[in-house]
Amino acid sequence: MFSFFKRKKPAEDALDEVIAAPEAPPDEARLAQALASMQAAADAPPPGEAIADPGVAAEAPAEPVQPPDAWSDRPDAAAPADLAAAEAGSWLSRLRRGLSRTGQSIGGLFVGVKVDESLFDELETALIMADAGVEATQTLITALRARVRKDRLEDPAVVKAALRDILAEHLRILEKPFVVGEAAPMVVMIAGVNGAGKTTSIGKLAHALQARKASVLLAAGDTFRAAAREQLVAWGARNNVTVIAQEGGDPAAVAFDAVNAGRARRADVVLIDTAGRLPTQLHLMEELKKIKRVIGKADDAAPHEVLLVVDGNTGQNAISQIRAFDAALQLTGLVVTKLDGTAKGGTLAAVAAGSQGVRPIPVYWIGVGEGMHDLQPFVATEFADALLGGRA
Known about the structure:
CATH superfamily of the domain at 186-378: P-loop containing nucleotide triphosphate hydrolases
Helix content: 40-55%
Strand order of the largest sheet: 3-2-4-1-5-6-7-8
Strand content: 5-15%
CATH topology of the domain at 186-378: Rossmann fold
Largest sheet: 8 strands, mixed
CATH architecture of the domain at 186-378: 3-Layer(aba) Sandwich
Shape: elongated
Distance between the termini: 59 Å
Number of strands: 8
Order of helices and strands: HHHHHHHEHEHEHEHEHEHEEH
Oligomer: single chain
């Protein structure tokens, strides 16, 4: 009934290489060594082994295999602290590049200008063009005017720094850590429209949670979109994570079985993918409500988190999506994707301001690319810095 997919064992790769060599018959010593390696691998419990009935508690499951630290097997590599600092710098650079369109538009206004009413007018226009919305723009400009008058600021670079601080404080309401361990398993339902990067974000999120030493189980609940199941299975293979899936099954049933499987396997987190929906498709939004109710039948407290994946390129349309999905599912967090070159980024300022009746829902993660590490926690000061084009 369920499909589980695992990577081919390295030992099997070695055996194939020996047997398939076209130039000469296999060397007996090499063949014996490959067979011995394959036998040793076969004797070890596979980390992604399927369970026939997820609703029945299994025997003590094998501990998930954690990938070795990238620096640990290279004696000439940087120490962990140095590596973390390098990765942080790289992430900030990618974020600034991703928001460079807005950064150049706003940051460029502070070059060779006089701090007067004309500057405030241009800033107001630039923020609105960056999808910050009227409410957030007025809030930010009003606060900046007050700061300039109070501190008698005349240097454009100092005014830019003041705007950065004001923007960071404005966005602070969206900054919240994603906490794991308060429930076992922690069940996370993930929604979003098609094309927002939902399934890809789930794969990246699984990788990020494993880096925190959390064991993860994935559920392929997007049974409507072609190849969605296969896409999630591929991410499961990359992360060495078990995927609960059905061939064209009911998504609510997949979610129900995944929660029971997570409990049986003692997983820390269960990530449940759901089919993409447009907020205007009311009958499909009802299906999402059904999935949430069924998850609650498997665990009274679940889902513990309900996340919406939002495409950072959609601008003010993201506000409509957030409002509609929140009304249906009572969202607990957002994942903002595709902040990698064309996104304006100001939408988060609109969310923080509660524009158009939307709640300031926390932004747990933001993404700036397709790589495994390109999903990082949202930090208000970093985002404000990138939105204004970096420091002067």
